[in-house]
Every structure is written in structure tokens, then in C-alpha cells.
Amino acid sequence: MNSIKLVSMLEQFFIEDIGEGDVTANTLFPDTMVGIMEIIAKEPGVFCGSDIILQGFRLIDQSIQVTLFSKDGERMESQQVLASIKGPVGKLLSGERVILNCIQRMSAIATKTAQLVTLLEGTGARVCDTRKTAPGLRMLDKYAVRMGGGFNHRFGLYDAVMLKDNHLAYVGSITEAVSQLRSRIGHTVKIEVEIETIDQLKEAVQAEADIIMFDNCQPHQIKDWLSLVPQHIVTEASGMITEDNIVSYGRTGINYISVGALTHSVKAIDISANIHI
Q: Tell me, what's the pLDDT at 68?
């Protein structure tokens, strides 16, 4: 994770929440009052967000001391103390909500990813994310996927080509679109083509796409069609994939399975903070 970018993000999060100052904490607690805050898991899962705790409280007050008891990607149990933070009580409380919001979401993504990775064990398929992340949180969301044992798809529109139906509707064909792109983009940029029919698959193979995504295809279709794809072309399944059917997709022989639900609809893990003065 880019630490420079993380600090910049956290600064904006704190500006949004604290504004001109924490009215409650600044009024009630003198700067000399020191306490210890414990961050506690209230349900089991996979922890993620150690840098959020370290960098976040450091931004709030350089004198705050953080002791971590869990590493990113490690299993956490209910009532487990994840971190202990010592410093001015008012400052600890001012930073609490933003930090908890981040680690609750990141831990939820890591936990969900780990569940799917476990389901796919032995199939050879890898779980990956999508661009369906919370705006402004993509770096954190995708980091959490990695900590859950998953893999990252492209980070944005800038680092890989993906030809979708709307692109193809304008250009006219997969062949023409891939040809135009090959003549204009750098040799390090991968080209992925989204297909839904066997004719589109054959055309994508003929056009020498780097990656072929089977979009909204059933497992039996993918299994049958994969025989048409040369080994050097990476394959991916996406669309309508859930915990209930992901194993069926994994058993088709597909290389990657991208799941938007890893990031677009996770329920935050319950993590709280208790302070002792």
C-alpha cells in the first residue's frame, strides 16, 4: 500500500470528520489527561488495517503510542484485542471513528475474500476483485482483497484495456477494436475482451486478446468453450457469481473469477474501541 497516498487520504478523512475541532472532546478533556484505548473485534473474521491505526493516530498526535497485536491477513476472534493505543484521551477519541470505519470495512472485505478463496481450494482458480469499489477507497479496498488471499484486477481505466459491449457497439467488432488498440497503445498494456457468445469467443481468440472474460456465462458453457482458448490466453469468469455457485465456476478450468461483491456490498465487521483513563 502506498504510504504517502494513505496519509493524504487519512488527512482528508479527518478533515471531513473533525473539521475545525472536536467540540465534545476538546471541551471535556484537558490535553494532559492520558488514557489507553483498546480496539476489540466483536466478531470473528480476517483482520485488515494495521497501517490505518498506525498512520491515523500518528496524524492525530505524534505522541500517541500504538501497539498492534494482530497483523493484516491474520484470523481474529470475537473479543480479541487487536491494538492498544496510549495518548491524550481527547485525541484518541477524535481519531476513533474514522479509523474504526476504515478497518471495519477493510476487515470485512478481507474476510469475504478469504471465504471465497477457501471455497476454491483445489480448483486452480483465483479470486479477484473489480472496479466496483467505494469511491475514494479503492486502494484500501483492493489492499484488503490481497490480505484475504485474493488477487487484484486492474486498478482503474488507466492500467489495462477492457473491451465491453458498449465499446464494441461503437467500433463494430472485436477484431477491429483489438487491431486499433494494438496500433496505438504501448506493448506493456494488456487487452482484455468481454464475451458472452461462442462466436465472440472465437473472434477474441483469433484477434489474439491477452485475456478473455466469460461474462454472465454458465459454468457448463465455460467448461465446454475453454477448449477453444489457447493456453497462453488468460481466462476469467465474471457476473452472477456467488458463494453458492463459485465452486462450480472454479471447477471449469477458468484462471480467474472476478467478484464485485467483494467490495460493493460487504457488511462491515463489528470492531469497537474502549478507552481506559
A: 98
pLDDT at residue 277, rounded to an integer: 87
% of the chain residues with pLDDT over 70: 100
Mean pLDDT throughout 67-87?
Answer: 98
Cα distances (Å, whole numbers) of residue 208 to 176, 190, 238, 253: 12, 11, 20, 20
- For the chain, the average pLDDT equals 96
Grid cell at residue 227: 477448449
* Cell, residue 206: 483469433
Q: With DSSP H G I counted as helix, E B as strand and the rest as coil, what are the percentages for the chain, rounded to 5?
A: 45, 20, 35
CA angle 218, 219, 222 (to 5 degrees): 90
**Homologous superfamily assigned to 3-111+266-276:** Quinolinate phosphoribosyl transferase, N-terminal domain (3.90.1170.20)
CATH class label, 117-264: alpha beta
List the catalytic residues. 97, 132, 164, 194, 215
Contacts of 238 (CB under 8 A, 6+ apart): 130, 194, 213, 214, 215, 216, 257, 258, 259, 260
Alpha-carbon gap, residue 201 to 214, rounded angstroms: 8
C-alpha cell at 225: 468453450
**Residue 128, Ramachandran bin (φ over 0: left; ψ between -120 and 50: alpha; else beta):** beta
What pLDDT is stored for residue 253 in this prediction? 97
Which CA distances in Å does 82 have to 38, 45, 222, 264?
A: 7, 12, 43, 25
Give yes or no for a contact between 254 and 246, defined as CB atoms under 8 angstroms apart: no
Between CA 23 and CA 15 the distance in angstroms is 14
Written as nine digits, the cell of 200 is: 465472440
Q: d(Cα 248, Cα 126) in Å, to the nearest integer?
A: 13
Boundaries of every domain in the chain: 3-111+266-276, 117-264
Calpha distance 250→276 (Å, rounded): 48
Say what percent of the chain tops pLDDT 90: 97
